[in-house]
Design a protein that fits this description.
CATH topology of the largest domain: D-Maltodextrin-Binding Protein, domain 2
CATH superfamily of the largest domain: Periplasmic binding protein-like II
Number of domains: 2
Strand order of the largest sheet: 1-3-2-4-13-7
Number of strands: 14
Largest sheet: 6 strands, mixed
Distance between the termini: 52 Å
Strand content: 15-25%
Helix content: 40-55%
Shape: globular
Radius of gyration: 22 Å
Structural class: alpha/beta
Number of helices: 18
CATH class of the largest domain: Alpha Beta
CATH architecture of the largest domain: 3-Layer(aba) Sandwich
Length: 418
């Protein structure tokens, strides 16, 4: 047995030793830092690492679990000063600072292997910077429109697939005395979700990523078209009143009580909707509709990832662990309803027998050819994300302020990306 010292006051350290009477090729120490500090994710990760340890009994594995919020503030320090061999993090722009600082290992060699290249293809773009891949994903979850199926049936509505159908449905919902969508923008990021979908559906994934990367002016006519589409819904009275006073959880009762018919949200909203008494006969899900027919469908699917720090001491074992974590068998286990309750990234995995996970997996595996975004506050730098989401919220309240809002965002873009 071995033990681990706490690396910070915020860290929860766990020492694990694995020994079985079998010969393994991997030897030495493998240190893994995790931000999965909540009980269920923590247990899931520890059990998965245990299975890897059983396959590699000559490998001494050490795990350090750090509170997620503390992890975010400490990651640069430990990558620089005392790097582990494997560390959890996030895809896309959230990994960019560590890639550009030379703190994450290039693992493009893993992505050249058919098992990863073929089966994790949906997230390759999110793991790619400068044409290279910098980690592997282990879980993600879908966003989309969760709606009251019983209200749709009452009003004679069917799931829309086009923007015109979406607006026609909304008009009937508003006419019935309800809002089309609940939303709580008190903490801003929910408005970011609406911007993501409207912009990706209007202008496409590449344009959206260029905007997040500061390569496009906020006063570009294509951006203005995204807001023009959004304004159509706002002018119809599509959203609940006073949404700026509610968190996303506080906006749930409007849907539960039937005052709003739908919610554009991540799959994590399903559990509280069920806990509030809605049955699966009342709840359903559809993919955000097409707006521009010439644009391939892209989705928000925030992705959690494993990385190898550049200063890792046992990169051979680290690569073996990344392969293991990305395998269809492990992806099936860690993402099932008893563990993470999310979606496996590996297309060969089995998905938990939950209708929303099944729908999300099908959508992300076969109907998101445009790309997979990580959500606005992950794809854009933190400062740009904050000021832009403030602008999104203001626009939803006062859409006639658009020119002033876009001018402010453009000034921020020039300052932040200089």
């Amino acid at each position: 047995m071995h033990s681990i010292l706490k690396r910070t006051a915020a860290a929860v350290a766990v020492g694990l030793a694995f020994a079985v009477p079998a010969k393994a090729e991997l030897t030495g120490d493998l240190t893994i830092f995790l931000d999965t500090s909540n009980p269920a994710p923590r247990a899931t990760m520890e059990e998965m690492i245990g299975r890897f340890g059983e396959k590699n009994p000559d490998l001494n594995i050490e795990i350090t679990v750090i509170d997620r919020e503390a992890y975010k503030t400490q990651i640069r320090n430990f990558l620089t000063a005392n790097a582990p061999d494997v560390a959890t993090w996030y895809a896309a722009n959230r990994m960019r600072p560590y890639v550009e600082a030379g703190l994450f290992e290039d693992v493009s060699d893993l992505w050249a292997e058919p098992e990863i290249a073929d089966n994790l293809a949906s997230t390759k773009g999110a793991m790619t910077i400068d044409g290279k891949q910098w980690g592997v994903p282990y879980t993600y979850y879908q966003w989309g429109v969760y709606y009251r199926k019983d209200i749709f049936e009452e009003l004679g509505l069917s799931e829309p697939t086009t923007w015109e159908e979406e607006k026609a449905n909304c008009a009937k919902i508003v006419e019935s005395g309800r809002a089309c969508y609940t939303i709580g923008t008190k903490f801003l990021w929910t408005a970011g979700g609406w911007f993501d979908y409207l912009n990706m559906r209007t202008n496409g994934f590449d344009f959206h990523m260029d905007l997040a990367g500061g390569k496009v002016s906020w006063e570009d006519d294509r951006v203005k078209q995204t807001f023009a589409n959004w304004k159509e819904l706002i002018d119809m009275g599509a959203f609940i009143d006073n949404h700026q006073t509610y968190s996303w959880q506080e906006a749930l009762p409007f849907m539960v009580n039937g005052e709003a018919a739908a919610y554009l949200m991540g799959n994590f909203a399903v559990a509280p909707l069920r806990d509030s008494g809605l049955t699966d006969d009342q709840l359903d899900f559809y993919q955000f509709v097409k707006i521009n027919p010439d644009v391939a469908l892209s989705e928000d699917a925030p992705t959690d990832t494993f990385h190898i720090p550049s200063a890792a001491k046992n990169k051979e074992a680290a690569r073996a662990f990344l392969r293991f974590a990305a395998s269809p068998e492990e992806q099936t286990i860690i993402n099932n309803g008893k563990n993470l309750g999310q979606l496996p990234v590996n297309a060969q995995s089995s998905v938990d027998d939950d209708k929303f996970l099944q729908q999300g997996f099908e959508m992300l595996s076969s109907n998101s050819t445009g790309g997979v975004a990580q959500f606005w506050d992950r794809d854009a730098p933190a400062e740009m994300a904050k000021v832009s989401m403030e602008g999104f919220q203001e626009f939803m309240i006062k859409p006639d302020n658009l020119d002033r809002i876009l001018s402010k965002l453009e000034r921020a873009r020039k300052r932040i990306y200089k």
